[in-house]
Design brief:
This protein is of the alpha+beta class and 339 residues long. Helices cover 42% and strands 17% of the residues.
């Protein structure tokens, strides 16, 4: 008996929608969430793929988010759009705000989309790649709950606080990166725990501040920042830009929803778009051609560009479908049938 299940992309989309709608999400919210988790699964990022549907449904059942509320869009300034998600999932807010972000960037050269009071769980690269698909340069940042100890500390205070960037390359895949400022995404530790596997040294410390390779102890303790004090500083910057700057909370002020309490899992996200043609006018193409020299020189040295593995995985998935553990498929199938 095989321990994995392979689904076509359409089957994975149908399963995702069924899980979310059975979990109480409106079709509009479910569709936005589905598009994000499918994008991650196609790119073989299992920690942000179909596995994340379980957390969405659990949070909804625990009263941690509004599954039907519509985002409120506010025209804050010529280059700023704010959206109050009203405790809904951030993904529908992003999709509703993207046209404003792009239009204002083309007018002003730079534009900011600030999403407030949202439940966020998803990968950021699908968002910044939607921006670069329009020929704009995109950045996105968001805090998370306090999972990470600051450099030199022993207790969770910072989030995994990811940052993503995407540079358009006409006719080619964009130059994209998306990474947590912790050594690894928390979802990777959760997947190790589910699989009964140890984590590598240097990912986390236990509740006593001691290094651990036990995934369960790591989840009860604190994750570590990459690059020591450098990752800690970047994490702090992201927490400030996607928190107080846009009138939202700091990561350590948020808490996951549980069976005992709805928690406070809502926080902010900041997305920034740059319009090269507004900056450069008729010379935009010349300077983008110049940028290609940097990418070519990186490749000439035998180095990889960020996301190269993802793009290769994307092509495989489009041909062969997506493969997930059978245990996960069984769990999702049960959720899809729940009333």
């Amino acid at each position: 008996m095989t321990d994995t299940v392979t689904l076509s992309i359409k089957q994975a989309e149908k399963l995702s929608l069924a899980v979310l709608e059975a979990g109480g999400f409106s079709h509009e919210h479910a569709s936005a969430i589905m598009r994000s988790v499918i994008a991650a699964q196609i790119d073989e990022c299992h920690s942000h793929g179909l596995y994340r549907l379980i957390g969405c449904v659990q949070t909804a059942r625990n009263g941690g988010l509004d599954t039907h509320v519509l985002p409120e869009i506010m025209d804050q300034a010529p280059a700023v759009t704010r959206i109050n998600a009203h405790k809904g999932c951030s993904l529908l807010s992003f999709e509703k705000g993207l046209p404003f972000l792009i239009e204002k960037a083309r007018h002003c050269g730079i534009s900011v989309l600030a999403i407030n009071n949202s439940f966020h769980f998803s990968a950021l690269w699908p968002e910044v790649e939607q921006i670069s698909a329009h020929g704009l340069v995109g950045m996105a940042m968001t805090p998370t709950h306090a999972f990470v100890a600051p450099a030199g500390g022993t207790k969770p205070l910072l989030g995994t606080n990811p940052i993503a960037f995407s540079w358009p390359r006409p006719g080619k895949n964009p130059y994209t990166f998306d990474f947590a400022t912790s050594v690894i995404a928390r979802g990777e530790i959760e997947l190790h725990r589910r699989a009964g596997k140890e984590i590598p040294e240097g990912w986390a410390i236990d509740e006593n501040g001691q290094p651990t390779t036990d995934a369960t102890k790591a989840l009860a303790g604190a994750m570590l920042t990459f690059g020591g004090h450098k990752g800690s500083a970047l994490s702090t910057m992201i927490g400030l830009l996607a928190g107080p700057l846009i009138g939202d909370v700091l990561g350590h002020e948020t808490h996951a929803a549980s069976e005992d309490r709805p928690g406070n899992p809502h926080h902010g996200e900041i997305i920034i778009a740059f319009a090269p043609e507004t900056f450069l006018g008729e010379e935009a193409q010349k300077h983008f051609d110049h940028a290609e020299e940097l990418f070519e020189r990186i490749i000439e040295q035998g180095a990889r560009l960020p996301s190269q593995r993802r793009f290769e995985a994307r092509e495989r998935s489009r041909k062969n479908g997506v493969t997930i553990p059978k245990a996960l498929h069984d769990e999702l199938s049960i959720l899809a049938e729940a009333v």
